[in-house]
Amino acid sequence: MLAFSIVSIMPETAYTARTNNAFVLIETLRVAELMYQGATQEDIRQRVLVEDLFQLRSQASRERALQTILKRLQQVPEEYIQLIATGNPDIHRFTILFLILREHRLLRELIDEVLLDKIKGFDYVVTAADLRTFFEGKRDQNSTVGAWSNSTYKKAASNTLLVLVNAGLLQPTFPRGNYQIRSVPVPSALRQKLLADGLGYYLTLMLDF
After folding, report:
1. Whether the Cβ atoms of residue 146 and residue 140 lie closer than 8 Å to each other
2. How far apart, in whole angstroms, are the C-alpha atoms of residue 182 and residue 137?
3. Can you list the alpha helix ranges (DSSP code H) found in the chain?
């Protein structure tokens, strides 16, 4: 276990209120498959927006989901797209988590300041009070987060937490609002790629030590 804050050695990104499309696993998989097969962005837009590949009723929802996914996939080397397109379900899940961690400062800090701190003390339960302290602390300490409306703040906090649940790093437990921390090894293909690219510190944020 590292003795210092892992986020302190990572490139800093701005806080962004992420209130939609927290994980979109199946949708990301579909787009990655199309990209791996050589589809153009126009082809992908046709499949998603016209043919309703995502099976979303609202055109606006299709647009938002596709924009989120394309932004994530276009910012990484093709090898990561290939991992999503051709890998097993665990590789899909962890590679998408990596894509989200790259852009999501609040998520990185939640893992670093709450989950990793808990694990250091051999405590594997995140309580509702822990989460409330973390999110309210960010609201008090940072002017960007503090400027969010109550509605935006609640949605951003909920979606940040939902990423960890969907990724399998947190499992809801009783009493309601509490979560069990789950440390699952990152699949070797993704682990090797991250290490080769000098991005091994993301393994710590994925709770793979």
Report:
1. yes
2. 24
3. 25-36, 41-45, 59-73, 78-86, 89-103, 105-110, 116-120, 128-141, 143-146, 150-167, 188-196, 201-205
| Cα–Cα distance, 27 to 120 (Å, whole number) | 35
Pairing mode of beta strands 125-126, 170-173:
unpaired
From 34, 55, 164, select the one nearest 112 (Cα to Cα): 164
Q: Return d(Cα 86, Cα 67) in angstroms, integer.
A: 22
* Pairwise CA distance, residues 169 & 181, whole Å: 6
Quick: pLDDT tens for 19-49. Answer: 676 788 999 999 999 999 999 999 999 999 9
Q: How far apart are CA 77 and CA 74, in angstroms?
A: 8
Helices 89-103 and 150-167, axial angle in degrees (round to 10): 150
pLDDT tier for residue 77 given thresholds of 50, 70 and 90 = very high
* pTM summary value: 0.90
Burial of 98 (0-12, 13-18, 19+ CB in 10 A): buried
What is the residue type of 13? T
